[in-house]
Amino acid sequence: MSVVQAPTSYLPPIAKIATFSPTQLLDALLYLKSLYLPEVRGSRRRRVFLDSLDDKLAQIGANSHPDAYSDLHLLRSDVFERSYAIRWLTTLIAQIEARGELLQSGHVATGDLDSVQPLHIHANTDVLIQQAASLLAVCAGVSAAGRVQRVFSFDSAIAGRIEVPLTDIPLENQDYASVGAQTWGAACVLAEMIVESPDCLDLGCDPRVKAAVSLGRALRVLELGAGTGLVGLAAAKLIRALPAWKNRRVTVVATDFHPSVLDNLRINIEANFPTTFTNHDCSISITSHFLDWSSFPTTETKPDIFSRPFDIIFGADVVYEAQHAVWIRDCLKSLLRYPEASDVSMEYSPAFHLVIPLRPTHTFESGTIEAVFGWNSPRPTQRELVIFSKEVIVCEADVETGIQGSSGDNNVEYGYYKIGWSF
Questions:
Q1: Which residues pair with 154 in a beta bridge?
Q2: Which of 60, 129, 20 has the alpha carbon at shortest distance from 403?
Q3: Helix 68-76 crosses helix 22-36 at what angle (to 10 degrees)?
Q4: With 0-12 CB in 10 A as exposed, 13-18 as middle and 19+ as buried, what is 143?
Q5: Of the given ranges (23-27, 276-280, 286-290), which has the lowest mean pLDDT?
């Protein structure tokens, strides 16, 4: 069994940092990143990576045992070890900057130059400083209670980089209903899909979508089971950055059920769309709201925000109990906009985009999606909610922590469903 080492054991001694190579220091930063800023499990879709420092920072050797998870949690909450990591990072940054100033001054002997050259003239030294400074901020802000702050970054060929800072909070007494307090892999996958392929998820420059959403009304976007809000926030930030939606009114509504999850969701929305910030484009609004799937369909007096249906609805990892698919379907009947004549002529339909993990332990729950919605048929006898398409997405299970499953399988699979009204 592999044992996760503590910072005091793993990191190069503080007094000897100057004697270590950039490669060794990078390894130390990788270790600290995996410990204090872990990537969400199963959130990296399989693809070909470039050989860059950022890619190296996204990889850790996959040699650890599953039991290392508990060790990681213990280390993250260890105040002494975290304090040592802060001191180590502070010293590293100071050493690199001091050597840089020494080289730039020109007052350095040949022997001194030999000792500092490997560290400072290395092409990735500036990136090392940036990564160390970022980790320093994280380590200084990590609480023993399990609060984790991350910045999720996604690249768009049209809009550039979309960044979403988020805070995860610990579960309330291991309450299963508060799982939305943390960011899960399905949300990362769906957010990445939205940013990278907006046309495929009805948010890009597709003329069918632009025509369907006339200038006379707002585009309405809903996220079910929003949790930390990653999907809705990524969509809102992408829309704000896309030229196709400039000066067009957009309403994004992120919903959840659990009180503590909603509180954290509001905090994350405020962090990304501050109410005190005057935006040059005031056409985009994003808010959070309570939504109980089990009672919403039968509620006679609904909140005003739900009085009109939505053009696009997102859901990530929202089906983990057998009745969830039925509840969601019944909610969609009033929440998903019914196609208009113009939609049908353009072969466009408002859609529910759903990503769920295909867990071996929850095959029945996952199977309820196809059982409840069914597949679109060429000549439906009546309008009903059906599955238009399904795609299986394969992700690396533990890129950051380097923890494999007991079988050695380092893959996590997700099902992506596009659901809408039959034509």
A1: 162
A2: 60
A3: 90
A4: middle
A5: 276-280
